[in-house]
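look at this fold:
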Amino acid sequence: MNFPSISLLVTHYNRSRSLELLLQSFRKLDCSFGEIVVSDDGSKPEHIAYLQQLQPLFGFKLITAEKNKGLGNNINKGQDAVTLPYTLYVQEDFEPQQQLLWKL
């Protein structure tokens, strides 16, 4: 399934392996979006480094912050970076399932 007019917005904080599993899950479901935005909220350097390694593999736009300012701020920061008319927002521990995608 391809959703070219939908941005996938994922908030992230110190769980880079979990984010990787999420993105792999969408890929296994053959699900793609017009863009993917990962909004990080001041993660530790090792997680930022891992996100930077994942970036070319999954083609997401990475938005970072120097300091954690809370989930609401992280969502807003990510939404500011979205360029498409619709947004599907999930946290990095979301587990996509085929049944959900049919409802989009």
Notes: Residues 39 and 76 are 9 Å apart (CA to CA). The helical segments are 16-28, 45-58, 71-81, 98-103. The first strand starts at residue 2 and ends at 12.
